Amino acid sequence: MKLYSLSVLHKGASKANLLKAAYDLSSFSFFQRTSVQEFMTFTSALIVERSSHGSRASVKEQEYLCHVYVRNDSLSAVVIADNEYPSRVCFTLLDKVLDEFSKQVDRIDWPSGSPATINYTTLDGYLAKYQNPREADPMSKVQAELDETKIILHNTMESLLERGEKLDDLVQKSEHLGNTSKAFYKT
Fold this sequence. Notes:
Blueprint: E1 3-11, E2 16-23, H1 33-50, E3 55-61, E4 64-70, E5 75-82, H2 87-104, H3 123-129, H4 133-136, H5 138-186
Antiparallel strand pairs: 1-2, 1-5, 3-4, 4-5
């Protein structure tokens, strides 16, 4: 499970404007990183342009999933993750980022802003924190603990059933031994 990109954009009338972005391209080779980053930036802008206001969507591209949230005020965010990353956690991250971004950056700067002019530094922190969804999201952590408990409970039930079968075998053997001893006593 991995997050590759987290971007905040403004959806204009004709095109989307990148305001700030964070990338984790450590899994790509050094020579591919620039082109991969450009591709992720282009894809993020394209998805925002094609999404309607007030919508959330997930778009699959090869082994990646792009999750987008476009608010009614035209502020948008896109996260690019692998297929295994839980989408609920992605949308929680997008909500947090957009809420915090709208509080820290003036609305006047959104249409004309660029990554160089926007002063918002917490995207890299969010990208690093959410690399492990179980650590970042309490619901994922609880779900993982429930899954572990379910496995343990299942194993315990299987061993109890096996013990019950063994007890049934012992009961049958003792009844057979009792019947044999009665037959021996009679003879």
